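Progress report, Aim 2. The chain analyzed during this reporting quarter is listed below.
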Amino acid sequence: MNKLKIAIQKSGQLSEQSLAILEKCGIKISNDVRKLKAEAKNFPIEILFLRDDDIPQYVEQGVADIGILGQNEVWEKDKKISEIEKLGFASCKLSLAIPKDEDYDGINYFQNKTVATSYPKILRKFFDEKGIKANIEEIGGSVEIATGIGLADAIFDIVSTGSTLLMNGLKEVEIVAKSDAVLIASQSLDEEKQNILNRLLFRI
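Predicted structure tokens for the chain:
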């Protein structure tokens, strides 16, 4: 029988919450979830454990049929996929932050400044809409240290509680977007897989 392949993050909180939502839907997954693949015992789905920033590409290419991940990754990767449903967990903000002793007088603060981020596409779009010309410095991890080491004047990053910003002497000054976990799907599902997805959505 045809199985629906669902990609979820291989580790971390989003992974646990994704597995929990499948469990709440009454779907029993084989215990050893730390493999790259797992199968449901009582529902026609197969789970692929992937890096969250790879999920949009794999869904676009049809390696996975659907995926669960944060909207921030969906927006940043900008692949040809369908956003099906918000899942109501993993909520966070994508915010601009500056050194806490700096005065902030509005968005023009960022004119000609250097901003470090792991989300250059989302930030570029925002700055373009606001008419801000800034230098965007793309870095992989630990974005919040960028101002302290002199790499950037400000940062753009995910903020959930704000405690990491405080620890690094930063303050949040502008919320650019709010992101939740979402279910995404390939735009070329066949009828059988679409039917399985509909059954899954009904349970969710």
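The chain has a mean pLDDT of 94. The first strand starts at residue 4 and ends at 9. These observations will guide the mutagenesis work planned for the next reporting period.
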